[in-house]
Amino acid sequence: MKRLLSTVLFLSVILSLSACEKKNPFTGNPEAIKAGAELYRTHCERCHGPQGSGGVCPNLTDKDWKYGGSDKDIFRSIASGRPGGMPAWKDIISRDDIWKVIAYIRTLEK
User: Fold this and answer.
1) Is the pLDDT of residue 78 over 90?
2) Residue 101 domain boundaries
3) Which has more pLDDT, 1 or 109?
4) Rounded distance between C-alpha atoms, residue 16 and residue 18, angstroms
5) Strand partners, 82
6) What is the CATH number of the domain that holds 36?
């Protein structure tokens, strides 16, 4: 029984990690980008600014990303948070919504 529980736990961790390592399913989707913009305004704008250019928190419009700028890296930053101020959002917004925010953030890049 212990072995079965260990195996189930291991598989759930692997599946959880792989879910945040895929490519963004909403890239280029206008409806998802619009939804991501609304989520950004609600949850991100107060720290990252209306155009994502920073303010209290890092600039999201450039290529300089402390924890990596791939969609996978950004997903991890949003979902799990980062030391020094970035809260974890995985218990507040869904995986799909995190991907939508990322799709929107990509439209802010200069």
Assistant:
1) yes
2) 2-108
3) 109
4) 6
5) 86
6) 1.10.760.10
Return d(Cα 16, Cα 13) in angstroms, integer: 5
Q: Residue 13: pLDDT above 60?
A: no
105, exposed or middle or buried, with CB in 10 Å at 0-12, 13-18, 19+?
buried
pTM of the entire structure? 0.80
For residue 3, count CB atoms less than 10 angstroms from its CB and return exposed for 0-12, middle for 13-18, buried for 19 or more: exposed
Alpha-carbon distance of 69 to 36, in angstroms, equals 18
Q: Look up tokens 């399913």; give the residue.
A: 25
20 vs 77 pLDDT, higher one: 77
Q: What is the amino acid identity at position 96?
A: D
Q: What is the mean pLDDT of residues 32-61?
A: 94
Residue indicated by tokens 């980062």: 82
Cα atoms in the 13 Å half-sphere on the side-chain side of 30: 0
Report the first-to-last Cα separation within the chain, whole angstroms: 54
What domain count does the chain have? 1
